[in-house]
User: Fold these one by one.
Assistant:
Number 1:
Amino acid sequence: MNIKQIETFFEKIKEYNILIIGDLMLDSYLWGNVSRISPEAPVPIVDCKKRENRLGGAANVALNVKSLGANPILCAVIGTDEKAETVRLLLKDRGLSDIGILSDQKRITTTKFRVIASGQHLIRVDEEHTDYLSQDIETQFIDKIQQIIESHKINAIIFEDYDKGTITARTISEIVELSISLNIPTLVDPKKRNFFNYRNVSLFKPNFKELTEGLKIETQKDDFEMIFKISREFMLKTGAKSIMTTLSELGVLICDTEKYIQIPAEQRDISDVSGAGDTVIAVAALCLAFGFSTAELAQISNLAGGLVCEKVGVVPVEPELLKNEMKLKI
């Protein structure tokens, strides 16, 4: 990786269309201050100063892709409730297309309520349905995704799976099969329920907890040889080309069936890890589409994930910050 290649990367990705399939969420924030404890229970009383709604989940991956200059196409299923209207307005405000958004009147829009006081994340309350899509909605959703792939030049496909039911085994199978026929790389940010349904993908990106729970294996986070061993077994079983496991304070470990590389984490002032995985998968997709090596992909994704951890709340990575960090690593 050199300066010219870095500059070319940030110019080239402006031409890329990245398809993101997954669980779209509404992140609802309440910001305030704490000055006393409730007389009703030993909990802090938050004096609310501001409320804010943001796009989260798969939509945060789309925002990261857009922030870096590429064109995200988000495919997700939401409800027909008031929060669904808020989501569509936020998509419009952030310049994101809703051509891949399907409404299901039998589902509610996944919402995560966060209370933050004096820079501290106090509590989160989730409102969601996690059942898989009905067969009829599943068929409509797959048809919509296929139409988008056939009508756009897609440079990479991301499955952003938060286990809320949007991504089904059939959706995975049909879209991965289509992507292989069109030579489109596929990346997965997995959760437990669909873990073994992702077959023949280009890059599988679990965090350490997801990897060990998905494979039902206990090991230590710093036992890189064991992580490589179990990852290799998973790749041979599922046909995945590579696995990149995020290890929080230990950085990332990326491997194929022959070798692994561990990229240490950068020293940073961590404020909030929310959304870091979304940033990592977004950057990894762009790196894979561009043609960076697996080692370079891991290094760049690791830098990007660390940068967003310095911010409070779920926010996309800033391209100039990432570009500068990449140049420092030459």
Number 2:
Amino acid sequence: MNLLITICARGGSKGIPGKNIKPLNGKPLLHYTFNRAFEFAKLYDADIQLSTDDNKIIKSAEAINYKTDYLRPKNLATDKAGKIDVIKHAFKYAEGINNKRYDYLLDLDVTSPLRTINDLKGAFEKLKRDKNALNIFSVNHASKNPYFNMVEEKDANGYVELVKSVGDVKARQEAPIVYDMNASFYFFTREYLEGNYKTSVTDRSLAYVMKHISFDLDHPVDFTMMEIMLREDLLDIEI
């Protein structure tokens, strides 16, 4: 069984300029994900492939002894490029350069680093046990529920209705359980990568529920919150 780990880190960022290598509690954000990738790669004898269009990000990876000659094509380096297309391109490159046929791919998102080695192991084993599943991704229990307390506009007058409806639900505890995709990690099978899928949610997708906090660093306030949590040792996990 061959496993590839991809780390996709584009140079441009509108929300937090240069966020992929921005220092977080004294260490570039990128390094948190690489350190977890190194740890997981040792367990499964996996290869790691960085996908970036930015030489500064390549230099940051070299500082922790990772080197690559791969540069993401310009058409995949815009904020409109789909993540799945980016992953598939890196996947094909890695197979060629390493002369391997990968059975699985793990993508680790740099901007959502709150993941543990046990999260990755648990999700990977769950995917391997289900021979029909195409992929698995990390989630958290949602704070809001579209069956109970999420609404959307239904007409031009601005009147709203529940996003989803199921019977006579009067309490959130009665509503179906829903999850937030936290973008921390995604495992894909080769079947998925060879298919014509454009999103990570398919009719054969699994979810791995994290029991600890996880969130994406999209805005400056997210970065500040994460830094305070790390500095004050407020997290219940180590990253």
